[in-house]
Task: structure prediction
Amino acid sequence: MAKVKVNHDACVGCGVCASMCPDVFVLGPSGKAIIVEQYRGASEAEGEIPDDLVDCARSAADSCPQQAITVE
Ligand code: SF4
Result:
């Protein structure tokens, strides 16, 4: 398991993360990226994902133009 978080102060809603790793990220109603419902935690901007999705979440984090995603 890994913790994933999207910083909504930084996210500009470009959709890169949701297109690269749709099993983890989706664009929410506010136009910013959120965690898919299945893995969501205390807020829609954070959650816990299984090990087999960590690589794609990290790739999305690396590709985020705003460096708004953290995976740990
Ligand atoms: Fe937001 Fe980054 Fe995802 Fe773009 S790639 S929607 S800026 S979190």
The two ends are 9 Å apart (CA to CA). Residues 54-63 form the longest helix (10 residues). The pocket of iron/sulfur cluster is lined by residues 6, 11-17, 33, 64-66, 68-69 (CB under 6 Å). The chain has a mean pLDDT of 98.
